[in-house]
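Sequence only, no structure available. Ideas?
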Amino acid sequence: MEKEKAIVVGLKLPHISDEQLKDYLDELELLAYTAGCEVLQRIVQERQRIEAATFIGKGKAEEISRIVEEKSIQLVIFDDDLTAVQVRNLERIIKCKIVDRSGLILDIFAKRAKSKEAMTQVELAQLQYMLPRLTKMWTHLSKQYGGIGTKGPGETQIETDRRVIRRRIKILKEKLKDIEQERNIQRKSRQDFVRAALVGYTNAGKSTLMNTLVDADVFVEDRLFATLDTTVRSMKLSNTQKILISDTVGFIRKLPPNLIASFKSTLAEVVESDILIHVVDVSHPLFEEHIQVVNDTIQEIGAGAKQTILVFNKIDLLKDRTMLSELSKKYKDSVAISAKRNINISALKNKILSLISSEFIEKVVETSHTNYDVISKLYQIGEVLDKKFKNKKVYLKVRLNKKQLGNFMKILSTMDK
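Reply:
I predicted one. Tokens follow.
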């Protein structure tokens, strides 16, 4: 299939530096490449403020229209979100498809979604994004969704399409409720274990790190959003300590709000984890801005208070490694690694173990010596430091995470009755 030819458009406002704008458009081009486009040109418009009718101004829109015609461009991609009015006005001037940043990200998610859950989440986000932006280009959705609605008497096609979309949104929300219930059951079965979640800007190397830490087979590719579905694996930190670690979807600046809302059940892995491992591509020129984007997103989903380990990844790509000593002073308790080259991975594991250990306590657990399930469970989830038998009872001195111990004592009180 022939790639669509595209132009990317950026707006330089007074608060945006030249370096930032270049990085934003580099990222937009990578998004376009990930979506399957061939970017032929980038266009920058410098303005004091956004133009309400066309975003970039009518004159610039007409200039883009001429380029589109000369180069047979099929797609113009804007680095910011456009209003329905702006899209409509730009379509009148530029005779090709107009896509904004959120629309492009949603298209990539739709292409990348493989599981039933991810496909449902993405479709819901797409429809919620599409609903206020319906123009003549979105007509005949009733055919796309199996003829749920047809054109009624006195209705325009767009009104019919809106009705079809609202019905479909309702169905998808019900599906996601069922999926979320299944997820909750899965998470309850894992509540005895300490859980860590890998978070980070897209393409920071989370999946590569996951594979390195637990010898997993998580899909890795040098494109944005290579991983959409959460992967959970067991990781051994020491002879007596195992944790569950999950790889989650990457974040990006201006991530569509509908997408965050739709991925609620997936992002619950982050919210319900005990530790966050924040992976940063330290070789990126704007990595500190990426850190802030991730921190803001984590705060938005309600996980801002989690204990977090900051991991500076891809140190093998640094031309000047002296910056690492400055970063270690600025970001206390951070770790510098290369997941791809397996550099300093043991230091990261020790850091995780140290953080978990600070949450551990020792306790003597008393149970019947025939209560094999309880005894086995203790060996499974904690470290048994001592064991004594007396009067058909066994006394186990165990070292457990506070969370694990609380859950275990509830189980023990039930089993001993």
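The domain at 195-357 is CATH 3.40.50.300 (Rossmann fold).
Hope that gets you unstuck.
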